[in-house]
Amino acid sequence: MSGATLDYHNDSISLRVVEALADATDTTPSELDPLYNTVDPEALDRLFQPDSSDDIRVTFEYGDARVEVRGDGTIMVDGTVHDSR
Where is the Halobacterial output domain (predicted)? Predict the structure, then answer.
């Protein structure tokens, strides 16, 4: 399965989550329900900065998918890594 093509240092974690969800659901980001219906994208972006602790971990449900974002930049959807820095 292909990973997201975003650059961790130039793209926000919320954009990377959307790309990972699109990859996991085999759809385009524009076809997804807005991320803000599930989680505050700005809060995610503030929490996950390039210098954030690797110990940070946020898990949330997006539709039928379970999303986990880790401080090391890894994004997992339903237990499968879809993006990592």
Answer: 10-78
